[in-house]
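REQUEST FORM: STRUCTURE PREDICTION
Request ID: SP-0412
Submitted by: Lab K.M.
Chain count: 1
Length (residues): 190
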Amino acid sequence: MEARRAGDVTERKRRFAALLRNSAVLRFGLSLVARVLAPRPPVGAVGALFDGDGRVLLVEHVFRTDFPWGLPGGWVRRGEDPAHAVAREIREELGLTVEVGPLLLTEPVGRTSRSTHPPHLGLAYACSLVGGTASLSAEVVSIEWTHPHEIRHELAPLQHKAVLLAADALARAKRDATRQPRNSANQALE
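STATUS: Completed
RESULT:
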């Protein structure tokens, strides 16, 4: 009896799933229900932007009360690609055009006693400068280019990790670039 009832339930689920797959109207209705019921945790995204001297760009934000100094970035809009959000935020906050590179780090960001932001998912990307000159906006109090191991400000843990990861990746890329010509020259001599 139990097995037959389980088989009936399974068959009903299969028919319902097939109905959903084959009906655009039902899929649309389900998508509306999912939008209303699905959890929507906020997502913040920042960019680790380095100059040609290996210095990282830090900004003092007006609205960040827990860690005022940090990497440029902000909230990802609903449906927005997080990498595009980083480029948009850096353009809006600083007037810079960047190319957003690989994702460095992602982790949950909690609250501190000084936080005004909600708990959220934090993303950090490596960025390279394409153009522009950094300028202040309504959201930025000041900017500073500094070497990663000489940072004088307390950064949010995710952002501190992202700076170190990006700095290590840049150092590896420089080492690889300096090794490559020697290998090519050695190969040409053989």
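NOTES: The beta strands are 43-50, 56-61, 69-70, 73-75, 97-109, 120-131, 140-146.
Reviewed by: T.R.
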